[in-house]
Amino acid sequence: MYKVLYITEKNNSIIKDLQSEIEKILNIQLDLIQIINSDDIYDNLLSENQPAIVIFDETENNTIDIVKNLKKDESFSYLPILLLSDKYDYSNNFSCGIDAVVRKNISGEELAHQISTLIKYKIRIDSLNKNFSEMSERNATKSIQLDLIKKFIPLTVWDKCEDLANHQNMIIPEEEKELSFIYADLESFTSMSENLTPTEVINTLNLIFDIVTQIVYQNYGDIDKFIGDAFLAIFNSPDMALLSGIMIQSELERINNERISKKMFPLKLRMGIHYGRVVRGSVGGTLRYDNTLIGDPINTTQRLEGMSPSGGILASKNIIQKIASCTFENARFDKYFLKGKNKEIEAILLFDYYKSHQDIMETLFKYRKFVEPETLN
């Protein structure tokens, strides 16, 4: 049984009401412990059954200090910390060790998925630690090295390599597959970065990409690659690609309102979303390969991004026609001439459409329950 600590200054049933849904998602049993006095947290942390996640309510005034002290202890360095808050000081929260900040008015379903994602991460880390204790020092070092490498390559490639290794196959075969794509680029970041230090540039990109990766993986997608201030994400489900795009732009819009009120420059993505058949193959030399996706749909997605408005989404008619969960009534599709290609493509300004049809977000959320987290490789 996995323990969940919920620290709040008052009796609150938010997490208690979600316990059964989280248990259903993870297929495990949870022991929910609500702590009114934050001083009691250490007794629970030091017990034999350590928690799988700690959830703080924003009303705790000393939350930042508590988290900083916890993360200093190696025993709790991988313990997921989630903050329920109406305030968003991302730089301060993430620098102190908080792993996720969630709005208090978020839907119960969304909160349950956020908590489940963090608990999955803790279970995986615990499994690795258990394996480490059973290995020799040399093997443990190699395992740590592999775990570090895993963070720098797409999960799609990692899972494929794991499967091939189990069958003692040293060659990743080429394969064709129909996928959905998001390509997004941070507008005017090159000029903005000229006034930032290298560290500030990295921190700013990580602020954006942390939001992107959480949303993409939560919706059963994968980050195929980061390209400077741009990223390419892939999905089996066209519906989840659209949901992710809308969620990312909505979150950035909210963050930018905060940044502008603090006289900070906004961070806006241009985004293209498309669907099509591509081939995954290994390119490179005998000493260094990159397993990558190749095909015209990816180029088209990039062209759509280039024509998207700042903070907007340009989604092709190809992917809209593949959406299973909802219909796009009275949707306006315009023709766009693709730069470098002698053809036009029909596309919709999806984020603009969403703002006048916000019910599609709820529909896509509900559909996610029926999406199988199948492999993308």
Can you describe this structure?
The structure is a single chain. The chain has 14 helices and 13 strands. The protein has 377 residues and is of the alpha/beta class. The strands form two sheets. Strands 6, 7, 8, 9, 10, 11, 12 and 13 form an eight-stranded mixed beta sheet that branches. It has a five-stranded parallel beta sheet with strand order 2-1-3-4-5, sandwiched between helices. Helix 4 (90-96) links the parallel strand 4 (81-85) and strand 5. Helix 1 (14-26) packs across helix 5 (108-133) and helix 9 (198-218) packs antiparallel against helix 10.
Short description:
The protein is 45% helix and 24% strand. It is an alpha/beta fold and 377 residues long.
How many strands? 13
The CATH architecture of the largest domain can be given as 2-Layer Sandwich
Structure classification: alpha/beta
Termini Cα gap = 33 Å
Name the CATH superfamily classification of the largest domain: Nucleotide cyclase, GGDEF domain
CATH topology of the largest domain: Alpha-Beta Plaits
Order of helices and strands: EHEHEHEHEHHHEHHEEHEEHEHEEHH
State the name of the first-level CATH class of the largest domain.
Alpha Beta
Strand content: 15-25%
- C-alpha geometry: globular
Average pLDDT works out at 84
Name its key features.
eight-stranded mixed beta sheet; Rossmann fold; globular; alpha/beta; 2 domains; Alpha-Beta Plaits; 45% helix; five-stranded parallel beta sheet
